[in-house]
Amino acid sequence: MTRMFVDAWDPSYGSSYEGADGGDGPAASSSAQVDVNVEVPAAEWAPVDVSASARVPDVVFLVDGVRRNDAGLWTDEEDGSSYAGLAASYAAGVVRCDLANGVAELAGARVARGLFTASPSATDVQAGSVRYEVHRITGAGEASKLPAAVQGPLTALEIDISSAARDGGSDGADLLIVDGPLRNRRQLPRTIGYVKTHQKHYLPAAQEAVVPRLRPGQRTPVFQIGTVWGGWSWYLRLPGSSGAPWSGVVRVECSPDLTPDQAIELAGVSGVTLPRFASSAYKDPRAPQNLMPIAGLERRLRSMLGDARVLHRALALATVRTR
How much is the pTM? Predict the structure, then answer.
């Protein structure tokens, strides 16, 4: 008999796994070359239990960012041409979790706003007390592509706020968890990227078959993804999953600049650390993948963005004055 599972995530957030059949993992295959012989030979792949030697970090930093499109704009250039623009607000923050003392606190948060456009003549927009700094986009600057342009400045803000939070010092016994792929944050020390949703197959069929067999707290062996933003990676199942094949599974990654042994060590650290922060379904619509400190940080950051209706009206008034 065919078994069915209900995705634990609230459907308004999409699915935790974006497969064509809804439950057996991602549908699209990655074109990246993958080396699965990093930790163990390919033929010996099996679920990896938590290592007895893996040490929980004294301090864990969790960083995340949020963004919101406040208004779409159009310019009217002197030569009669027009360019699309996007006024966006974004924020980044860091939660510092002192595991030794059981204390969690907001270590830093910052809000920024930008006007993203390919217009050669656009300048900063002062909307009431808020300034939208112009970010010049290369190319034609189609309106559909402008939201993606916000990610670069947001990532830079996350890096700045993470570095500032760690300056307080933790004697190197810390771990930084970045919500999402590392991408250009891979230079940050003792850092892992935390990917909640799965859109592509990375592993050959024989090794991918290990993922549904993972029990809570277990991970796959480390493998290497050979792309520009690739690096060392592994899958880990969190506690509190629904029982579906990929439920509660996250993909974790670390910098390709690390040695294989360093990557394997970080994989062990992730196995004793990430399950501590797994959320519960009655508290979070994206449980268990949306880590509890991240969920609280997202709520705090969104409140810092301000009232979207007020900002939209301020932008409308500001653009009227430029006509």
Answer: 0.86
Q: What is the pLDDT of residues 79-135, one digit of tens each?
A: 888 999 999 999 999 999 999 888 999 999 999 999 999 999 999 999 999 999 999
Reported in sequence order, the residue ranges of 124-270 that DSSP labels E, i.e. its strands, are 125-127, 130-136, 174-179, 191-195, 200-201, 223-226, 232-237, 249-254
Distance between CA atoms of 66 and 160, rounded to whole angstroms?
15
Strands 232-237 and 59-74, by their bridges, are: unpaired
Which residue type does 99 have? L
Q: Which residue has the tokens 């508290």?
A: 283
Q: In angstroms, what CA-CA distances link 311 with 74, 257, 302, 319?
A: 17, 42, 14, 12
**Token digits for 122?**
């656009």
Contacts of 31 (CB under 8 A, 6+ apart): none
Q: What is the rounded end-to-end Cα distance, in angstroms, of the chain?
A: 67
Q: Using alpha carbons, list the distances in angstroms from residue 230 to 34, 195, 201, 225, 255.
A: 10, 13, 14, 5, 8
